[in-house]
Design brief:
The complex is a heterodimer of chains A (117) and B (109). By secondary structure, chain A is mainly beta. Chain A is built from no helices and eleven strands. The chains are: A mainly beta (117), B mainly beta (109).
């Protein structure tokens, strides 16, 4: 089945640091990938849609200058949390599907736990 | 914003028992999906039911969909300790999923 790899799995860093998270589709091409955020004991919230070769589409309330998304190839999207602060600490998860059909399931990475000290 | 509610929020059962989780949603849908999340991990797709389907089975999983009530249920039969996880329903198209609040299932051996 389709595999999405996310790296790193865990990041602990100081306040003010910028952190880059990678999301790769290993055995399929993904023109679109999605980034979610999840707080402890809560559900996933869609942050943005990453579009290959064009600008990402951000959900309402998500700061695009804070969460930079780059989707330079059909198999890689990156999320950079710029100048991270403790309130940015969260679990970030990406997803992709192998086709554009809305009836295709999403394949998720294993997530990145970001802890800002 | 969240699509709707899931209940119960938490469910604790003994191995071998059945577990039923319910999900409600607010808007019209093309399909509804159920995902499982082990602690600290990503989500795994379990089953997708289309809006013109009423029931679907996959192994020990049974999903129902009632579009008139905008609700769905996930039944796990003969539960195992390995089924311990959080379960989420999700709606949406083109990959932009809106998740329910989730049910945290604990299956005790």
């Amino acid at each position: 089945g389709a595999v999405v790899s996310q790296h790193p799995s865990r990041v602990i860093c100081k306040s003010g640091t910028s952190v880059k998270i990678e999301c790769r589709s290993l055995d399929f091409q993904a023109t679109t990938m999605f980034w979610y955020r999840q707080f402890p004991k809560q559900s996933l919230m869609l942050m943005a849609t990453s579009n290959e070769g064009s600008k990402a589409t951000y959900e309402q309330g998500v700061e695009k200058d804070k969460f930079l998304i780059n989707h330079a190839s059909l198999t890689l999207s990156t999320l950079t949390v710029t100048s991270a602060h403790p309130e940015d600490s969260s679990f970030y998860i990406c997803s992709a599907s192998g086709g554009g059909d809305s009836n295709q399931p999403q394949h998720f990475g294993d997530g990145t736990r970001l802890s800002i000290l | 914003s969240q699509q709707g509610e899931e209940d119960p929020q938490a469910l604790s059962i003994q191995e071998g028992e059945n577990a039923t989780m319910n999900c409600s949603y607010k808007t019209s849908i093309n399909n509804l999906q159920w995902y499982r999340q082990n602690s600290g991990r990503g989500l795994v797709h379990l089953i997708l039911i289309r809006s013109n389907e009423r029931e679907k089975h996959s192994g020990r999983l049974r999903v129902t969909l009632d579009t008139s009530k905008k609700s769905s249920s996930l039944l796990i039969t003969a539960s195992r300790a390995a089924d311990t996880a959080s379960y989420f329903c999700a709606t949406g198209g083109g990959g932009k999923l809106i998740f329910g609040q989730g049910t945290e299932l604990s299956v005790k051996p």
